[in-house]
Amino acid sequence: MTKKALFLMLPLIGMLSCGKGKNEEGATATEAASTATTSVTIKGSDTVLPLAQKESEEMMKNNKDVSVTVVGGGTGVGITALLEGTTDIAMASRDLKTEEKLKFSEGKKEIEKVTIAFDALAVIVNPANKVGQLTREQIEKIFTGEIKNWKEVGGADEKIVAYSRESSSGTYEFFKEEVMEKKNYAADVLSMPATGAIVQAVGQTKGAIGYVGLAYESKEVKHIAVSYDQGKTFVAPSIAAAKDKTYPIARPLFYMYDKANAAKVKVVVDYALSPEGQKVVSEVGYIPLN
Question: How far apart are the C-alpha atoms of 70 and 46, rounded to whole Å?
Fold first, then answer.
């Protein structure tokens, strides 16, 4: 499946479900539901979403007794659902926060965290933008509001329109901590409900900038090479650059589940870690574990 095809499949908000014969709303197919003896729900990170959907589709081809439903919404949404017991697996693009660990402990839930892939976080701009590289410091100043015009970083005299994920997103948290060094986003940064929405907005807005998981890159946007050494070396996001650690904005992607539920989710987790599952990781556009 191409990255562009994946993008077209992703709604701005809502559910993506896996199984043969999905209806227009993405509800789990009645055929799969009627034959399955185990139903597993995966919820959370929009970054992990295309990977979880594709892996679940492939896994169910040889596991007719399992039905998997994949729902986006953001890492925070998935972790909350896991805490409340409304999902079997939480997809996450960040680690658990201290307060989240405390809530799980209070709820007597022991959480297993499994790294299923790695991601290079790409900074994207509109293809019409002649700027092709930025330092970490410049990106920070753009998203904190200190730099407001592209001419300040070698571009045209045009207002910068910055797009971010909303605060429930693990990508939002990761970008704030690792790229912005924990500084706050500017008040005029536009929050988007899903990663696909950022791609669409940047592709349609000449002065736009945003950030997305590597698998969401498309011809509608252009990625930026990034420097973490004050402009001495610029590296573009790619699977190869993330693997050899030359691209600086990389992170693990997780499945999280209650250990008490391990038997139920085992087939899904095992497939994600299998050679077949890791092959899907590369096909979707992320970085496999080995």
Answer: 10
Between CA 214 and CA 287 the distance in angstroms is: 9
Strands 66-71 and 190-192: unpaired
The predicted model gives 51-66 an average pLDDT of: 95
pLDDT band at 37 (very low <50, low <70, confident <90, very high): confident
Query: Which distant-in-sequence residues (6+ apart) come within 8 Å of 106 by Cβ?
Result: none
Kindly give the interhelix angle for 75-84 and 98-106, rounded to the nearest 10 degrees.
10
In 3D space, the residue among 143, 144, 182, 189 whose CA is nearest the CA of residue 166 turns out to be 189
Residue type, 155: G
Alpha carbon separation from 204 to 129, 155, 163, 209 (Å, rounded)? 12, 18, 12, 11
Identify the pLDDT of residue 35. Answer: 57
Q: Report d(CA 127, CA 144) in Å as an integer.
A: 23
Q: Is 144 helix (H, G, I), strand (E, B) or coil?
A: helix
Q: How far is CA 4 from CA 179, 267, 289, in A?
A: 27, 29, 24
Phi, psi for 255 (deg, rounded to 5): -105, 135
Residue 211, strand partner residues: 123
SS3 of residue 73 by DSSP: coil
Helix (H) or strand (E) holding 5: helix 3-9
- Say if residue 9's pLDDT is above 50: no
Q: Which two tokens stand for residue 214?
A: 């590597």
Over the chain, what is the mean pLDDT? Answer: 89
Strands 250-258 and 222-223: unpaired
Three-state secondary structure call for residue 62:
coil
User: What are the strands, taking DSSP E only, across 110-241?
Assistant: 111-125, 133-135, 161-165, 190-192, 208-213, 222-223, 225-227
Q: d(Cα 67, Cα 152) in Å, to the nearest integer?
A: 52
